[in-house]
Structures are given as structure tokens and as C-alpha cells.
Amino acid sequence: MDVGDKAPAMSIAASDGTELNLASPGAPLVLYFYPKDDTSGCTREAQDFTALEGEFKSAGVKVVGVSRDAMKSHEKFIGKYGLSVPLASDEDGRISDAFGTWVQKSMYGRKYMGMERATFLIGADGRVLRAWRKVKVPGHAAEVLEAAREVAAEA
Questions:
Q1: Would 129 be classed as within a structural domain?
Q2: Backbone phi, psi, residue 153, to 5°
Q3: What average pLDDT does this structure show over 114-136?
Q4: Could you list the active site residues?
């Protein structure tokens, strides 16, 4: 999935009870993919997006985190850290496959499949407006907020 591409016509259920149609979200949407609940980098990223959630809402932009963890894991993760940004479960991998975030990784010479930390800013019409690949967590949520504000200002 690259800038200018139309998001796939798929729905995803978020932990806040909303159902999102990715091809037609109706308002700008930040979809951030992360490897695993309750790991250090993923916790920090979720906390950073949570800290800025009010500013995203003020800009009219919804933020949803996506991993292949089960919804039960998301619920524990949200409760443990007081996260307010909704999380979505992609257990079957349809969403991460469509966005190209399920990739081959390597650690200590061992190759395995895993979630690439990536973020997509999707416009109200379902077009990908910005894409961040191989994300480094520090400062990322603030960078995405800045891009979301620019999108909101143009709308």
C-alpha cells in the first residue's frame, strides 16, 4: 500500500466498538500497525498516540492501532496501560497482508514472519495520503499528528 492507493474494501472492528470501513472511513483515519501488545516499543507507541488522542480528535482524525493479537490481549493491554486509542485485531492477517505489513524479519540470523511497524494516514475517501514504513517510535506519533493536521486543514 502506497500513497495514492485506495485502501482495501475491508471492515475492521476496533476495541471501542466501532466498525471501520477502510475504503470509505468517512473521516481521516490513522492506522498504525505494531508487532505485539505489551512489548516495550509497542507500549511506548500506544502511549504516545494515547497522549495525543485529543489533538487528533480536534483535527477530526481517528487513530486505530492494529496487530495480530487477539481482542482479549488488546483488552488486557488497554487496561494495563490506560490506553484510550482503540486497537483492532487482525488475527487472520487480512488487513496486514493488504497493507503489506506482514513481512520477513531477521533476528540473530533467524528469519521469521512478523509485523512491520508502519503507519498509514487514510483520507475520508479511502485514499492513502501518507505512509510511514519501518517506523522508529520516538517522535512518531507527533509527526503523524502534524501530517493529520495538514490533511484536516486542506479538507
A1: yes
A2: -65, -30
A3: 94
A4: 42
